[in-house]
Design the sequence.
């Protein structure tokens, strides 16, 4: 049996370049997808924050209008203006709750709270996806270093880091845990 001669550095370098180059492309694709997801969930969270803020502002304006109408109602009652008082009371009741338009204070408050829940749900993805992105970048650096150092251990370490990054990416997307 012929004894296998060890590969030269340039032969080992060629082998690792072939393997690592392909894996770098795969890791970069995962990183791009991860970045897209981070931006998407961040955009949703920002939109929901603005919507909730606007809804709370609308709620506050309804509260102010209701307070003014309540003052006018007291004045109308004091002057015994029964027809005006009835109209004002109807207006006050609509400010409090208006299921037909969904713009009563009760409906607006429920809507704003739901928007906050949706914002927090979108924000929950962020830490996982950010950490995953960092690990994909680390895996790419390790792969590049494995080519320069002609080191298979670094290559396999980068595969491990990339695998962990993929698991964290999945967690960040589906929020299983």
Sequence:
């Amino acid at each position: 049996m012929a004894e296998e001669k060890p590969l030269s550095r340039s032969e080992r370098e060629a082998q690792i370049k072939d393997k690592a180059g392909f894996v770098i492309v795969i890791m970069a694709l995962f990183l791009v997808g991860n970045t897209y997801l981070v931006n998407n969930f961040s955009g949703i969270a920002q939109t929901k924050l603005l919507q909730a803020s606007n809804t709370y502002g609308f709620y506050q304006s309804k509260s102010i209008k209701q307070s003014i109408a309540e003052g006018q109602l007291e004045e109308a009652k004091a002057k015994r203006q029964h027809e005006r008082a009835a109209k004002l009371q109807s207006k006050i009741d609509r400010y409090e709750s208006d299921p037909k338009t969904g713009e009563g204070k009760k409906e607006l408050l429920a809507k704003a709270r739901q928007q906050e829940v949706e914002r927090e749900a979108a924000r929950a993805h962020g830490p996982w996806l950010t950490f995953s992105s960092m690990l994909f970048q680390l895996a790419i650096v390790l792969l590049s270093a494995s080519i320069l150092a002609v080191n298979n251990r670094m290559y396999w370490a980068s595969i491990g880091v990339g695998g962990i990054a993929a698991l964290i990416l999945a967690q960040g997307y589906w929020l299983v845990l």
